Amino acid sequence: MKQVPLGMGTLNGWRVHLRDRIQADTVGEAENLHDPELMALDPAVGMTVSPIYFSIIHTVTGKHIGVAAAYNYTGDEVEYGIRIWNRDFWDKGYGAEVTGLFCAWAFTMGIKAVILKTPETNMRARKCYLNCGFEEFARGNIEGYDMIWMRKTNKEMQPLWKYSTG
Question: Which domain holds residue 110?
């Protein structure tokens, strides 16, 4: 596996921004690491190589509301993961905004496809990813979880989110 290109800086969306993770961010992550509901929606299964974590920050309040990750980078593809643990931000389009920002960053870096996996039972995530232009390409079972793999290629990239690096 190759290393994910570093230097995300900050990606600014309408309501959230993604930034490189700092040490202080790990406190919120640790508090939510073993939340049973979050684990069912996003089980930590499968192999991850060289993960790079990005903090999801609510722009207006400055709250650290979740984490996005890039891992298993091959040069052409990167796997994507997201976990918004602050339930005040569920079902309001924040996941779609973060996913759009991440894909825009990845495709700007020359990555040809973003891949993700989600449990079959996580209907909210599946709907979000389909709305963001991902397509299902495989199904399987990992460590007892029925998973769906989805992919978005840069040919499907639509300029939905204004972003900037800095």
Answer: 10-156
